[in-house]
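Posting here for the record, re: 4'-deoxy-4'-aminopyridoxal-5'-phosphate.
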Amino acid sequence: MSEFLSSRLKSLQPYLPGEQPREREYLKLNTNENPYYLSRMAADNLEKKDFENLRLYSDPDCTALRNEIAMYYGIDAENVLPTNGSDEALAFCFAAFCGQGAVFPDVTYGFYKVIANLLGIEFREIPLCEDFTVKIQSYFNAGKTIFLANPNAQTGIGLPLEDIENIVAENPRTAVIVDEAYIDFGGESAARLIRKYRNLVVVQTFSKSRSLAGARVGFAMANQDLISDLKRVKDSFNPYNVNSVSAKLALSALRDDAYFKKCTAKIIATRDRLVRGLQSLGFCVLPSAANFVLAEHATTDGETLYRNLKSRGILVRHFSDERIRNFIRITVGTDAQTEILLKTLKELTAI
Ligand code: PMP
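Prediction output follows.
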Protein backbone atom coordinates (compact mmCIF):
# COMPACT_ATOMS: atom_id res chain seq x y z
CA MET A 1 0.00 0.00 0.00
CA SER A 2 1.49 3.36 -0.96
CA GLU A 3 1.23 6.55 1.06
CA PHE A 4 -0.81 8.02 -1.82
CA LEU A 5 -3.84 5.75 -1.38
CA SER A 6 -6.91 7.66 -0.16
CA SER A 7 -7.35 6.97 3.52
CA ARG A 8 -10.96 5.98 2.84
CA LEU A 9 -9.70 3.04 0.77
CA LYS A 10 -7.09 1.76 3.19
CA SER A 11 -9.43 -0.71 4.83
CA LEU A 12 -11.20 -1.72 1.58
CA GLN A 13 -11.34 -5.50 1.08
CA PRO A 14 -11.28 -5.98 -2.72
CA TYR A 15 -13.29 -8.72 -4.42
CA LEU A 16 -11.30 -11.93 -4.58
CA PRO A 17 -11.86 -13.46 -8.03
CA GLY A 18 -11.64 -17.24 -8.42
CA GLU A 19 -8.21 -18.48 -9.41
CA GLN A 20 -7.22 -18.24 -13.08
CA PRO A 21 -3.96 -20.22 -12.85
CA ARG A 22 -1.49 -20.12 -15.73
CA GLU A 23 1.21 -22.34 -14.23
CA ARG A 24 -0.44 -25.67 -15.07
CA GLU A 25 -3.54 -27.10 -16.73
CA TYR A 26 -6.35 -27.61 -14.25
CA LEU A 27 -9.77 -29.04 -14.70
CA LYS A 28 -11.36 -25.67 -14.01
CA LEU A 29 -14.65 -25.89 -12.20
CA ASN A 30 -14.21 -22.80 -10.02
CA THR A 31 -15.51 -19.69 -11.79
CA ASN A 32 -18.77 -20.77 -13.43
CA GLU A 33 -17.49 -20.43 -16.97
CA ASN A 34 -19.19 -22.33 -19.78
CA PRO A 35 -17.42 -25.60 -20.72
CA TYR A 36 -18.53 -25.20 -24.35
CA TYR A 37 -16.92 -22.90 -26.88
CA LEU A 38 -18.52 -19.77 -28.22
CA SER A 39 -20.93 -20.45 -31.09
CA ARG A 40 -18.90 -21.22 -34.23
CA MET A 41 -21.28 -19.04 -36.19
CA ALA A 42 -20.57 -16.10 -33.90
CA ALA A 43 -16.81 -16.60 -34.06
CA ASP A 44 -16.88 -16.89 -37.88
CA ASN A 45 -18.85 -13.69 -38.13
CA LEU A 46 -15.77 -11.65 -37.14
CA GLU A 47 -14.07 -10.15 -40.17
CA LYS A 48 -10.72 -8.51 -40.89
CA LYS A 49 -12.58 -5.20 -40.94
CA ASP A 50 -13.57 -5.67 -37.29
CA PHE A 51 -9.92 -5.81 -36.27
CA GLU A 52 -9.04 -2.84 -38.48
CA ASN A 53 -11.86 -0.92 -36.84
CA LEU A 54 -10.21 -1.31 -33.45
CA ARG A 55 -8.28 1.79 -34.54
CA LEU A 56 -11.49 3.73 -33.91
CA TYR A 57 -13.38 4.21 -30.68
CA SER A 58 -16.31 1.88 -30.27
CA ASP A 59 -19.89 3.18 -30.62
CA PRO A 60 -20.62 4.75 -27.19
CA ASP A 61 -24.29 3.74 -27.56
CA CYS A 62 -23.40 0.22 -28.66
CA THR A 63 -26.35 0.61 -31.03
CA ALA A 64 -26.25 -2.68 -32.93
CA LEU A 65 -25.97 -4.85 -29.82
CA ARG A 66 -28.50 -2.75 -27.97
CA ASN A 67 -31.02 -3.25 -30.78
CA GLU A 68 -30.35 -6.98 -30.93
CA ILE A 69 -30.86 -7.41 -27.16
CA ALA A 70 -34.06 -5.34 -27.35
CA MET A 71 -35.36 -7.52 -30.18
CA TYR A 72 -34.45 -10.72 -28.33
CA TYR A 73 -36.41 -9.68 -25.24
CA GLY A 74 -39.24 -7.90 -27.06
CA ILE A 75 -38.44 -4.50 -25.52
CA ASP A 76 -37.23 -1.18 -26.96
CA ALA A 77 -33.60 -0.15 -27.44
CA GLU A 78 -34.23 2.63 -24.87
CA ASN A 79 -34.76 -0.11 -22.30
CA VAL A 80 -31.25 -1.55 -22.71
CA LEU A 81 -27.76 -0.49 -21.66
CA PRO A 82 -24.85 -2.75 -22.74
CA THR A 83 -21.93 -2.79 -20.30
CA ASN A 84 -18.43 -4.13 -19.82
CA GLY A 85 -19.47 -7.37 -18.15
CA SER A 86 -22.48 -7.36 -15.86
CA ASP A 87 -20.22 -6.31 -12.99
CA GLU A 88 -20.13 -2.90 -14.63
CA ALA A 89 -23.95 -2.78 -14.90
CA LEU A 90 -24.17 -3.66 -11.20
CA ALA A 91 -21.57 -1.04 -10.30
CA PHE A 92 -23.54 1.58 -12.28
CA CYS A 93 -26.69 0.61 -10.35
CA PHE A 94 -24.89 1.06 -7.03
CA ALA A 95 -23.59 4.44 -8.18
CA ALA A 96 -26.95 5.59 -9.59
CA PHE A 97 -29.60 4.32 -7.20
CA CYS A 98 -28.17 3.84 -3.72
CA GLY A 99 -28.53 7.29 -2.15
CA GLN A 100 -30.56 5.61 0.61
CA GLY A 101 -28.20 2.64 0.88
CA ALA A 102 -28.57 -0.94 -0.28
CA VAL A 103 -29.77 -4.31 0.98
CA PHE A 104 -28.89 -7.78 -0.18
CA PRO A 105 -28.72 -11.30 1.28
CA ASP A 106 -25.92 -12.29 3.67
CA VAL A 107 -24.95 -15.11 1.32
CA THR A 108 -24.76 -13.81 -2.25
CA TYR A 109 -22.38 -12.46 -4.87
CA GLY A 110 -19.41 -10.98 -2.94
CA PHE A 111 -19.01 -8.09 -5.38
CA TYR A 112 -22.06 -6.25 -3.97
CA LYS A 113 -20.37 -5.60 -0.65
CA VAL A 114 -17.10 -4.61 -2.29
CA ILE A 115 -18.56 -2.08 -4.72
CA ALA A 116 -20.76 -0.61 -1.97
CA ASN A 117 -17.65 -0.12 0.17
CA LEU A 118 -15.70 1.39 -2.74
CA LEU A 119 -18.48 3.90 -3.41
CA GLY A 120 -19.09 4.62 0.29
CA ILE A 121 -22.64 3.22 0.18
CA GLU A 122 -24.20 1.96 3.38
CA PHE A 123 -25.65 -1.51 3.17
CA ARG A 124 -27.48 -4.05 5.26
CA GLU A 125 -27.23 -7.78 4.74
CA ILE A 126 -30.48 -9.70 5.19
CA PRO A 127 -29.88 -13.27 6.39
CA LEU A 128 -31.13 -16.07 4.17
CA CYS A 129 -33.32 -18.65 5.93
CA GLU A 130 -31.73 -21.70 7.55
CA ASP A 131 -32.16 -23.64 4.28
CA PHE A 132 -30.50 -20.79 2.30
CA THR A 133 -33.73 -19.63 0.66
CA VAL A 134 -34.79 -15.98 0.45
CA LYS A 135 -37.68 -14.98 2.70
CA ILE A 136 -39.35 -12.52 0.36
CA GLN A 137 -41.25 -10.69 3.11
CA SER A 138 -37.96 -9.49 4.57
CA TYR A 139 -37.55 -7.40 1.37
CA PHE A 140 -40.98 -5.76 1.50
CA ASN A 141 -40.77 -2.01 2.17
CA ALA A 142 -37.01 -2.30 2.35
CA GLY A 143 -36.44 1.48 2.21
CA LYS A 144 -33.09 0.85 0.52
CA THR A 145 -32.17 -0.30 -2.97
CA ILE A 146 -32.51 -4.07 -3.23
CA PHE A 147 -29.96 -6.28 -4.96
CA LEU A 148 -31.02 -9.88 -5.51
CA ALA A 149 -29.19 -12.43 -7.61
CA ASN A 150 -31.66 -14.84 -9.18
CA PRO A 151 -30.62 -17.65 -9.11
CA ASN A 152 -28.62 -16.61 -6.08
CA ALA A 153 -24.85 -16.69 -6.26
CA GLN A 154 -23.04 -19.29 -4.20
CA THR A 155 -26.26 -21.17 -3.34
CA GLY A 156 -27.67 -21.59 -6.90
CA ILE A 157 -31.20 -21.43 -5.46
CA GLY A 158 -33.73 -19.67 -7.71
CA LEU A 159 -36.76 -17.56 -6.83
CA PRO A 160 -39.96 -17.97 -8.88
CA LEU A 161 -40.81 -14.94 -11.00
CA GLU A 162 -43.92 -14.44 -8.89
CA ASP A 163 -41.75 -13.85 -5.79
CA ILE A 164 -39.54 -11.39 -7.66
CA GLU A 165 -42.65 -9.54 -8.83
CA ASN A 166 -43.99 -9.38 -5.27
CA ILE A 167 -40.75 -7.84 -4.03
CA VAL A 168 -40.78 -5.28 -6.86
CA ALA A 169 -44.45 -4.44 -6.27
CA GLU A 170 -43.93 -4.05 -2.50
CA ASN A 171 -41.17 -1.46 -3.01
CA PRO A 172 -42.66 1.16 -5.34
CA ARG A 173 -40.33 3.87 -4.08
CA THR A 174 -37.12 1.86 -4.20
CA ALA A 175 -35.18 0.45 -7.11
CA VAL A 176 -34.93 -3.34 -7.22
CA ILE A 177 -31.96 -4.77 -9.11
CA VAL A 178 -32.32 -8.40 -10.18
CA ASP A 179 -28.97 -9.92 -11.14
CA GLU A 180 -29.77 -12.68 -13.62
CA ALA A 181 -26.22 -13.84 -14.39
CA TYR A 182 -27.39 -17.49 -14.14
CA ILE A 183 -31.02 -17.19 -15.24
CA ASP A 184 -30.61 -19.19 -18.46
CA PHE A 185 -29.83 -22.37 -16.53
CA GLY A 186 -33.29 -22.84 -15.12
CA GLY A 187 -35.03 -19.64 -14.05
CA GLU A 188 -37.59 -17.33 -15.58
CA SER A 189 -36.30 -13.85 -16.41
CA ALA A 190 -37.98 -10.77 -14.97
CA ALA A 191 -37.22 -8.94 -18.26
CA ARG A 192 -40.86 -8.79 -19.28
CA LEU A 193 -41.77 -7.04 -16.02
CA ILE A 194 -39.78 -3.93 -16.86
CA ARG A 195 -42.75 -2.58 -18.84
CA LYS A 196 -44.99 -2.91 -15.80
CA TYR A 197 -42.69 -1.59 -13.05
CA ARG A 198 -40.74 1.67 -13.08
CA ASN A 199 -38.44 0.52 -10.25
CA LEU A 200 -37.07 -2.70 -11.73
CA VAL A 201 -33.63 -3.20 -13.27
CA VAL A 202 -32.73 -6.61 -14.70
CA VAL A 203 -29.02 -7.29 -15.21
CA GLN A 204 -27.72 -10.08 -17.43
CA THR A 205 -24.41 -11.25 -18.85
CA PHE A 206 -22.90 -12.98 -21.87
CA SER A 207 -20.25 -14.53 -19.59
CA LYS A 208 -22.04 -17.69 -18.54
CA SER A 209 -24.73 -19.10 -20.82
CA ARG A 210 -23.18 -17.59 -23.97
CA SER A 211 -19.56 -18.61 -23.35
CA LEU A 212 -18.12 -15.09 -23.52
CA ALA A 213 -16.65 -14.49 -20.05
CA GLY A 214 -13.40 -13.17 -21.51
CA ALA A 215 -15.15 -10.74 -23.89
CA ARG A 216 -16.69 -8.85 -20.93
CA VAL A 217 -20.21 -8.03 -22.07
CA GLY A 218 -23.27 -7.60 -19.89
CA PHE A 219 -26.35 -5.40 -19.97
CA ALA A 220 -29.07 -3.78 -17.93
CA MET A 221 -32.76 -3.75 -18.89
CA ALA A 222 -35.19 -1.31 -17.32
CA ASN A 223 -37.64 1.43 -18.17
CA GLN A 224 -36.32 4.35 -20.16
CA ASP A 225 -35.82 6.68 -17.18
CA LEU A 226 -33.75 4.18 -15.21
CA ILE A 227 -31.67 3.38 -18.30
CA SER A 228 -30.99 7.06 -18.89
CA ASP A 229 -29.85 7.35 -15.24
CA LEU A 230 -27.48 4.44 -15.79
CA LYS A 231 -26.27 5.97 -19.05
CA ARG A 232 -25.54 9.16 -17.14
CA VAL A 233 -23.26 7.19 -14.83
CA LYS A 234 -21.71 5.30 -17.76
CA ASP A 235 -20.93 8.53 -19.65
CA SER A 236 -19.37 10.00 -16.52
CA PHE A 237 -17.17 6.98 -15.99
CA ASN A 238 -16.32 5.20 -19.25
CA PRO A 239 -18.27 6.41 -22.32
CA TYR A 240 -16.83 3.76 -24.69
CA ASN A 241 -17.42 1.00 -22.19
CA VAL A 242 -17.91 -1.96 -24.56
CA ASN A 243 -15.23 -2.69 -27.15
CA SER A 244 -16.38 -3.18 -30.74
CA VAL A 245 -15.10 -6.75 -31.18
CA SER A 246 -16.80 -7.94 -28.00
CA ALA A 247 -20.01 -6.17 -28.98
CA LYS A 248 -20.05 -7.94 -32.34
CA LEU A 249 -19.31 -11.33 -30.76
CA ALA A 250 -22.13 -10.83 -28.27
CA LEU A 251 -24.54 -9.77 -31.01
CA SER A 252 -23.73 -12.83 -33.12
CA ALA A 253 -23.92 -15.15 -30.09
CA LEU A 254 -27.41 -13.84 -29.40
CA ARG A 255 -28.43 -14.64 -32.98
CA ASP A 256 -27.33 -18.27 -32.69
CA ASP A 257 -30.20 -19.25 -30.44
CA ALA A 258 -30.15 -22.92 -31.47
CA TYR A 259 -26.57 -23.33 -30.23
CA PHE A 260 -27.36 -21.44 -27.01
CA LYS A 261 -30.31 -23.71 -26.31
CA LYS A 262 -28.29 -26.83 -27.06
CA CYS A 263 -25.47 -25.81 -24.68
CA THR A 264 -27.71 -24.74 -21.82
CA ALA A 265 -29.76 -27.96 -22.13
CA LYS A 266 -26.55 -30.02 -21.98
CA ILE A 267 -25.36 -28.13 -18.89
CA ILE A 268 -28.70 -28.63 -17.15
CA ALA A 269 -28.61 -32.37 -17.91
CA THR A 270 -25.02 -32.64 -16.64
CA ARG A 271 -26.01 -30.72 -13.51
CA ASP A 272 -28.58 -33.41 -12.70
CA ARG A 273 -25.97 -36.09 -13.20
CA LEU A 274 -23.49 -34.19 -11.00
CA VAL A 275 -26.05 -33.75 -8.21
CA ARG A 276 -26.95 -37.45 -8.20
CA GLY A 277 -23.27 -38.41 -8.20
CA LEU A 278 -22.46 -36.07 -5.32
CA GLN A 279 -25.42 -37.31 -3.29
CA SER A 280 -24.31 -40.89 -3.71
CA LEU A 281 -20.92 -39.89 -2.25
CA GLY A 282 -22.50 -38.44 0.89
CA PHE A 283 -22.85 -34.81 -0.16
CA CYS A 284 -25.79 -32.62 0.66
CA VAL A 285 -26.37 -30.46 -2.44
CA LEU A 286 -28.45 -27.29 -2.45
CA PRO A 287 -31.10 -27.31 -5.21
CA SER A 288 -29.46 -25.41 -8.07
CA ALA A 289 -31.03 -23.54 -10.97
CA ALA A 290 -27.59 -22.29 -12.04
CA ASN A 291 -24.49 -23.71 -13.78
CA PHE A 292 -22.90 -24.58 -10.44
CA VAL A 293 -23.82 -26.43 -7.26
CA LEU A 294 -22.98 -25.74 -3.63
CA ALA A 295 -22.31 -28.99 -1.82
CA GLU A 296 -21.37 -30.04 1.70
CA HIS A 297 -19.91 -33.41 2.54
CA ALA A 298 -21.08 -35.39 5.56
CA THR A 299 -17.58 -35.90 6.97
CA THR A 300 -14.94 -33.99 4.98
CA ASP A 301 -14.85 -30.21 5.35
CA GLY A 302 -14.93 -27.80 2.41
CA GLU A 303 -11.42 -26.47 2.69
CA THR A 304 -9.86 -29.93 2.86
CA LEU A 305 -11.83 -30.99 -0.20
CA TYR A 306 -10.82 -27.84 -2.08
CA ARG A 307 -7.12 -28.40 -1.27
CA ASN A 308 -7.13 -32.11 -2.05
CA LEU A 309 -8.93 -31.57 -5.35
CA LYS A 310 -6.47 -28.84 -6.28
CA SER A 311 -3.51 -31.10 -5.57
CA ARG A 312 -5.07 -33.54 -8.04
CA GLY A 313 -5.49 -30.92 -10.73
CA ILE A 314 -9.14 -29.99 -10.16
CA LEU A 315 -10.14 -26.46 -9.17
CA VAL A 316 -13.39 -25.80 -7.35
CA ARG A 317 -14.29 -22.76 -5.25
CA HIS A 318 -14.16 -22.59 -1.48
CA PHE A 319 -15.44 -19.58 0.48
CA SER A 320 -14.35 -18.83 4.02
CA ASP A 321 -17.62 -17.01 4.85
CA GLU A 322 -19.06 -18.43 8.05
CA ARG A 323 -22.30 -19.89 6.69
CA ILE A 324 -20.81 -21.65 3.67
CA ARG A 325 -17.27 -22.48 4.80
CA ASN A 326 -18.04 -26.18 4.99
CA PHE A 327 -19.21 -26.27 1.36
CA ILE A 328 -17.48 -26.34 -2.00
CA ARG A 329 -18.94 -24.68 -5.09
CA ILE A 330 -18.56 -26.71 -8.24
CA THR A 331 -19.15 -25.36 -11.75
CA VAL A 332 -21.02 -27.74 -14.03
CA GLY A 333 -18.62 -28.85 -16.77
CA THR A 334 -19.01 -31.42 -19.53
CA ASP A 335 -20.11 -34.99 -18.79
CA ALA A 336 -16.51 -36.18 -19.15
CA GLN A 337 -15.24 -33.54 -16.70
CA THR A 338 -18.01 -34.44 -14.26
CA GLU A 339 -16.99 -38.10 -14.39
CA ILE A 340 -13.38 -37.21 -13.55
CA LEU A 341 -14.51 -34.98 -10.69
CA LEU A 342 -16.82 -37.63 -9.21
CA LYS A 343 -14.19 -40.34 -9.51
CA THR A 344 -11.65 -38.14 -7.71
CA LEU A 345 -14.13 -37.16 -5.01
CA LYS A 346 -14.93 -40.82 -4.46
CA GLU A 347 -11.28 -41.47 -3.69
CA LEU A 348 -10.98 -38.40 -1.50
CA THR A 349 -14.07 -39.09 0.59
CA ALA A 350 -13.62 -42.86 1.01
CA ILE A 351 -13.14 -43.68 4.68
N1 PMP B 1 -23.47 -11.61 -10.99
C1 PMP B 1 -23.19 -12.78 -10.43
C2 PMP B 1 -24.18 -13.37 -9.49
C3 PMP B 1 -21.99 -13.44 -10.72
O1 PMP B 1 -21.69 -14.60 -10.14
C4 PMP B 1 -21.09 -12.85 -11.63
C5 PMP B 1 -19.80 -13.55 -12.02
N2 PMP B 1 -18.84 -13.60 -11.09
C6 PMP B 1 -21.42 -11.60 -12.17
C7 PMP B 1 -22.63 -11.02 -11.85
C8 PMP B 1 -20.51 -10.84 -13.07
O2 PMP B 1 -20.25 -11.48 -14.25
P1 PMP B 1 -19.69 -10.69 -15.52
O3 PMP B 1 -19.10 -9.39 -15.04
O4 PMP B 1 -18.69 -11.62 -16.11
O5 PMP B 1 -20.87 -10.46 -16.40
